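Entry 12.
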Amino acid sequence: MKRRNLVVALAVGVLCAHAPSYGAEPQTVLIGFVGPLTGPVARVGKDLENGAQLAIDEENARHPTIGGKPVKYVLDVQDDQADPRTAMQVAQKMIDDGVVGVIGHYNSGCSIPASAVYHKAGVAMITPGSTNPVLTHQGFENVFRTMGHDGVGGVIAGQFAVQQLKAKRIGIIDDRTAFGQGLADAFEKGAKQANGNIVDREFTNDKAVDFRAILTTLKEKNVDVIFFGGLDEQGAMLVKQMRSLGMQSLLFGAGALKSNAFLQIAGPAGNGTQDLEPGPALDKLPAAQAFATRYKAHFNQDVELYAPFAYDAALAMLKAIHDADSLDRAKIVAAFPKVVVSGVTGKIAFDANGDLIKPPYTLFEVQQGQWKSLRTVGGNGV
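Predicted 3D structure (tokens):
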């Protein structure tokens, strides 16, 4: 199935004042970026990096100043390899490099341990992809995100499966990672709140490639819906094996066919496939084509999926630096809770935990090989 080309939009605001003179050499300001740039999900990491880089490059073109002096923002790019131990190592490296804030990580299993490193150093961290609720509920005042967390999205997905899809017998599979297990837990909670019937819950791991034993068990229990908490590489294999066993048109969770979707219905030959994913209906925002064109011109490739969330994370970071009018890490952290930005994915504003206020989720469907948005649940407006 061909991946939907996201079309995105941005209401651009002035983040930093223009320098009164371009004669002075601007001070280099390091902003950290970290994600999985090698390994199975490297394409996700690169999409995130591009989104953050585009925001930085566009801001530098405005000749920003801090404290009345010209500055130039530079991304300190690090690869955490989607590995928690490596994530902590590169987190410390960026702190030692002198970054004023960090955009990342992607995997919740990396973000959660790394957040403790940033907290100890008093460095603001904003993730464009980690959705485990634990991340922002550790009591750390320096941690934020631009995507709704699983405690919201998973519950919405569970309720949707029962109330809208009329699921009668539900099976759940999760990959035992912080992301997959957390999302599956939230889905189960939402389904039970809607009086859904959870027939069975099975477990795998994020390295598994053969799911036939689990699927056979669920098939024998006559499930009509399967929810999978995990990433899309495994999800694609799971779908293929499901169909080889004659299991068709079943509901899938995050990772079944497309990254970070909370619900997916696998339809025949792709058409009719539906998914519920975080964010608004980007394909219907007014200035969408303009952003897509800028991105394509900058990187000679189309937006894949995550770049808009990283772009908005960079906008929020830049706004916090501007509002603090300082490169002092503590002042930037203090400015973050009051940040409000109109970004690609909507209005970026944070609650007391650093979570996005009223995050939107959109239901998409494949129609003639293309993803089309059907309707949006939640959201705080753009």
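Annotation: Residues 128 and 309 are 5 Å apart (CA to CA). The chain has ten helices and 16 strands.
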